[in-house]
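User: Study the shape:
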Amino acid sequence: MPLDVIALLKCAVRGTSSHEQGKSVSVKPTQGETVLLFRSDSAEFRRCTNVSAESRACDFMVFYHSPQKTVICFVELKGRDVADGYEQLETTYKQFRQVLGDTDKNIVWRGVVRTSSSPPKPPKKRYELHIQTSGNSDIGDILRK
């Protein structure tokens, strides 16, 4: 199933920040950067990316583009259960990659578990997606690395 871009745009968040249950994520773009934020735990996103209703999707997907790179970053807002957040990111990433395929090998893939306090140690399990935890709502530095 190819990616349904029109349906994906219906999941777009106005602006470059959003919040859910007291936690937030934001990116302050600089000149020459494009940032699009999508609500990935929604019926529209699931439909257009083939993420099953039974799977637990992460909260947001961030598309970041600068003259230097293109990044797709999945974001999960979590209180305490960081290991669960890693699983949600990995599931969403794998199912999204199946739909997108290898259309652009220059995309940098990242994941962020955004916690409301200082980030606990990540799980020891190995993941395909490069995931990190952050206590900061602005993830711009993570995207620009």
User: Anything to note?
Assistant: Residues 71 and 143 are 7 Å apart (CA to CA). The chain has four helices and seven strands. The chain has a mean pLDDT of 87. The beta strands are 17-20, 23-26, 34-39, 60-65, 70-78, 107-115, 130-134.
